[in-house]
Write a structure and sequence with these properties.
Length: 314
């Protein structure tokens, strides 16, 4: 059985990883004032967004996940012809409609695929398995990496989905923004009042950076650090300790809203890389997608890993 993978564009994984594993991407449309972008993990489009230097204007951007019709077209026009089963992984359903859209699209896809497959010379039924990673950005990386590993190991669709859901339940995604005022403005534009005006002003004045965590469909602050570099160091040191303690998946994800060399120059990065190398853990580094930069701000960093339950102290 040929099993494929499709992901939501808000899942931050490297382009070469997508190409190497022939992973389909369900795009997100982004509009900033009169500028329009297609977030489909294409490095050229990500660079075009950064080159436009939209800065603070992006906090009011409008984003639109792939619709039910878009998902149907992707599957009927391409995926049902190439695969016998496709595992779809999306960012947390509590933050995006894409998971529900895929579920709704699956009914029409599974109803109408047979003539398309027959015309393409493929026999047998077509299956879909949908997984909510319960995370966002780099936090979705471990579940995606494990899905690919299970497929390569020859596991059945049921085994792949069960394992992906298990990893999703144990995935931790961390976000370190550079600009608390931007984060507040973005939250307010979406009706989220969780970042108050006073806290954002104090945070800016004192250069305080919050560390935000996404886990099991919920997001919220778990710490605060003075200075972005110190925040990055704290995150890298935390990740190194989790790697040494043992991860559920031998893969750790990083994404950065800028040039990756800037992230690699941050304190603690080199030690994390050495720790991962010693433990046989693969690091998946990628530029943050347009959707991530719109929501967390350019220059932000996200980190994802899968681990047993624990309390992170920052």
């Amino acid at each position: 059985m040929r099993i494929g993978v499709a992901i939501d564009a808000a899942c931050d994984v490297p382009q070469d990883f997508l190409e190497r594993n022939d992973i389909a991407v369900m795009p997100i449309a982004v509009k900033v004032d009169s500028e329009r972008f297609k977030d489909d993990r294409d490095p050229a489009e990500i660079q075009r967004f950064r080159d436009r230097k939209l800065g603070s204007r992006s906090h009011s951007a409008e984003t639109e996940a792939s619709s039910v019709e878009d998902v149907q077209s992707l599957f009927i026009d391409r995926l049902v012809k190439e695969y016998d089963c496709v595992v779809c992984l999306t960012i947390m359903a509590t933050r995006s409609p894409i998971h529900d859209n895929v579920i709704k699209a699956s009914f029409a896809i599974l109803k109408n695929y047979r003539p398309v497959r027959e015309a393409a010379g493929r026999s047998g039924p077509f299956l879909m398995r949908v997984v909510d990673t319960r995370n966002i950005f780099a936090g979705a990386g471990p579940a995606i990496a494990e899905t690919v590993r299970m497929i390569q190991a020859g596991k059945s669709p049921a085994e792949v989905r069960e394992r992906a859901a298990q990893v999703a339940d144990c995935s931790y995604g961390y976000m370190l923004p550079r600009d608390l005022n931007y984060l507040r403005s973005r939250a307010r534009s979406k009706g989220d009042r969780s970042v108050s005006f006073l806290s954002s002003m104090l945070g800016t004045a004192l250069d305080i950076k919050p560390i935000l965590r996404a886990h099991r469909g919920e997001t919220g602050p778990v710490g605060k650090i003075r200075g972005f570099e110190q925040g990055a160091l704290a995150l890298f040191e935390y990740a190194a300790k989790r790697v040494q303690a043992g991860l559920m998946v031998p893969s750790l994800s990083l994404s950065y809203g800028g040039d990756l060399d800037e992230m690699r120059d941050l304190p603690g990065y080199s030690r994390l890389v050495r720790t991962c190398e010693d433990a046989g853990v693969q690091i998946l580094e990628s530029p943050m997608g347009i959707t991530g930069m719109v929501n967390v701000g350019e220059g932000a960093m996200t980190l994802g890993l899968a681990s047993e339950d624990h309390v992170a102290e920052f």
